[in-house]
Please model this.
Amino acid sequence: MPEAGPLAGLLAQLLLIAALAATIGLDGAGRAVGITCAVALSAGLARGMAYFGSERLAPADWITLTRGTLAVGVAALVAHSFGGPIPATLLVSLAGAALALDALDGWVARRTQTGALGAQFDGEVDAFLILVLSVYVARSTGAVWVLAIGAARYVFLAAGWPLPWMRASLPPRYWRKFVAATQGIVLTTVAADVLPAPVNYAALGGALILLAESFGHDVWWLRSNRHRAPGPPPAGRDSTPATPAGPWRGRLRTGAAAAPTILALLFVWGALVAPDQPVLLKPAAFVRLPLEGLLVLSLIVLAPPRVRRVLVWVVGALLSLVVLLKVLDLGFFAAFDRPFDPYQDVSYASTGAETLRASIGNATGNLVIGVVLALIAGLFVLMTLAVRRLSRIAAANRGWSLRAAGALGAAWVLLWLVGANFVSHTPIAATSAATLAVDEVKALRADIHDHATFAKEINHDALRATPANRLLTGLRGKDVLLAVVESYGKVAVQGSSFSPQVDALLDNGTKKLHAAGFSARSAFLTSPTFGGISWLAHSTLQSGVWVNSRRRYGQLINTNRFTLSDAFKRAGWRTVDDVPSNDRAWAPGTTFYHYDKLYDRRNVGYKGPTFAYASMPDQYVLGALQRRELSKRHRRPVFAEVDLVSSHTPWTRIPRMIPWNQLGDGSIFNRIPVAHTSKDSLSVNAAWAWLGGSGASRIRAAYAQSIQYTLGSLVSFVQHYPDPNLVLVMYGDHQPWSIVSGQGASHEVPISIIAHDPSVLKRIGGWGWNAGLRPSPTAPVWKMSAFRDRFLGAFDTPATNG
Model:
C-alpha cells in the first residue's frame, strides 16, 4: 500500500503537534504552521513515491520520515516563537535528534536496498529543517542575512525555472552532504545560545561561506556542462534522483509542465483582481474577469518577438507595482482607515521602521524589515517569470489565444452591462488595476493642487494679531496642561466589548475628582488621522487648520501660524513640551511651536526600563513634570503639552501604578512586573486577527488595559497634586487600529476639560458638553481644527467697540 508511509507520517506529525499544544500551549500560529507543514510533507512524500514508482518505503526512508516529523515540530515551535517565548531546549532537542538521525539514515541506506526516492526525500528534509532553523536564528540574533542559509536550496530550485540547464542531474559529491550537515549543526548550536555572541556570528558566517562555495561549485558545474547530452544519473542515497520509468512518465511530464503554468496564471490573475480594501477581501472577490488581462494578452500575442520580450519585463514590473500598491492599501486601510498615498506616504518608511524597532525590539524589527524587503524583491522576480511563461504559451498558441481573448472580452462586456457581482461594490467585470492607476494619478493631482489651497487656509488667521492683554484672560494664574492620550478613541468609551470597563473607570474618576474639588466637562472631536501618525492631530488642534497629511504638516510647520502654545506664551505663560517618546532634538518645537522648554527621554532623568514603544510609564512622565516645573515656587504659570504614550500600539507591556513618592528616577520599574505582556498584540501577528482569528480579542483587551492605565494615571495625578490653579485638557489623538476600532469606525475621539475653579467651566457652559469625564452618546462632536478658535474665544477678553 503506497499510502502507508505518508499516512503514518502525517499521523505521527499531528500527534506531535497535539503534544506540543498540550504541554507548552502551542498558539494558533504554531498549530496552523505545524499542520500545514505536516500535510505538505505527507503530500510531497506520496507524490514522490508515485513519481519514482515506489510501493513502500525503504528502512532508511522510515528514518528520514522520522526526521521530517521532528522538523515539523521545530517549524511549529518557530511559528509559536513569534507570539511568545518557547522553551529553547525543546527546540534544540528536536533539531538535535533530527540531525543525529540524519547520520543514521545515511548509514542504513548504504547497507540496505534504497533508491532515488530516498536521496530526494533525504535532501528535502535537510533543506526544510535548515530553513526553519534559519528563521528562528535570524529572529533571535537579529542577523537577517542568516535567512540566506535557509533560502539557498529553494533559490537554487527556483533558478531552474527560467534556466533549464539548472535542472540537470548533478554527480554525487560527499562535500555537499558535509556542508548540509554543517548548516544544521551550526544553526542548532546558535539556537541553543550556549556560546558567546561573537562566536555564534563567526560560526554562522563560516557556515554561509561553505554553503556559498558548495552551491557555487554546483552551479558552475551545471553551466559548464549545459550542452552535454544528459545521461542516466547513478542511483543511491547521495545521488540526484533518476528519471522514473513506466506509464507514470508521460502523465508526470504533462503534470510537471502544467503545474507551473497554472500557478503563473493564478498569480497574474490574482494580481489583477485582488481587492485593495480589507472589507472586500473575500474569496468571492477573486472570481472576476479582468479587462486589463485580456488586453495585455492580446497585445503580447500580436507583438513581434523582440517587442514581446520587452513587454514581458514591462508588464511584470507594472503588475508587481499593482500588487505592492494593493497590499499597501490593505495595510493603510486596516491601520489608518485610508488608502496608501505614494506621493506622501513613502516618506513615512523611515518613521515606520523606527516605530517598529521601538515597539518589538531592534533584532525582531530588523528581521521583519529584512523579510519584507526580500518578499518585495521576490514579488518582482516571480511576477516577471509568471508573465514570461504565460506569454510564451500564448504566443505559441496564437490563434487559440486570440479566440479565447475575444470570447472572454465579449463575456466581460455582457457582465459589465448587467452589473453582475458576487461581492457588493466588486463587479465581476473587473478593471481594478486600471482603476487603481487612475486613482493614484487623481490623488497626485489633488496633492499638488492642495498646496495652494492649504496655504490660503494657513494665512487666513484672524487671531494672529490678538494683543497679549486680551489673550486667555479667563485663565490667568492657572497652570494649563494639554494632555494627549495616545490612541484614546471613541471605541474606548462607546460600542465595544471593553468600553464598559473604561466607562466605569471614567465614572469612578469623576467621583474621585469631585472629592478633590475638581469638575469636568466632556465631548468629542473628529481627528484628522486614524490608527497612528499622531502629530497630525497635535498640529491640527494647536493650529486650528485641518492637517490630515504629512505634506500638509510639513507645509504648516514652515509658516508662522498662530498656535495655542504661541497664545499662552504671548500672554505670559512659560510654555513646555513634554514628549517622552522623542530621543533626539525636535526642531519644530522651537521653530514653529516656540516652546520655552522641551522635555524628552534624554533629559527627564529616567533610569527604568522601556515599555514596548513607550520609553517610560505615563505616571513617571507626569511625576517628572511636577518635579521639574509645577512644584517650583515664584514662577510664571505653565502651559505644557504632555504626550502620554503608554497606550501606544503594540500594547504589549503596560506598567503598574505605584505610590507617587516612590517614583524617584524610575529605576523602581525594573523590579515591578508589568501588568500585561503578550506578543500576540504585535503587528506581526495582527494579520491573523484581521482575518477573524482569536488574536483580535487579546489585542483589544490589551488596548483597553493600556487606556485604563493612562486615564487612571491622570486622575491619580490630579488627586495627588490637587492644585486649585490646575486646568487639565485631556483628549485622544486618534482611534486605535481597525483591529480594535472595527472596520468603518469614525475618527471621533473623547476630550475633557478638568478644573478646580468653577469660573473656568462656566466659561465653556455654552458649548453643550456633558458633566464628568465620560462623553455621553449625545455629546457634541467638533472637528479638531475648530478647538483652537473655540478655546481662545471662550477664555480671551472680547474686543470692545469704540
In short: Residues 270 and 779 are 46 Å apart (CA to CA). Residues 231-256, 677-694 have pLDDT under 50 and may be disordered. The two ends are 105 Å apart (CA to CA).
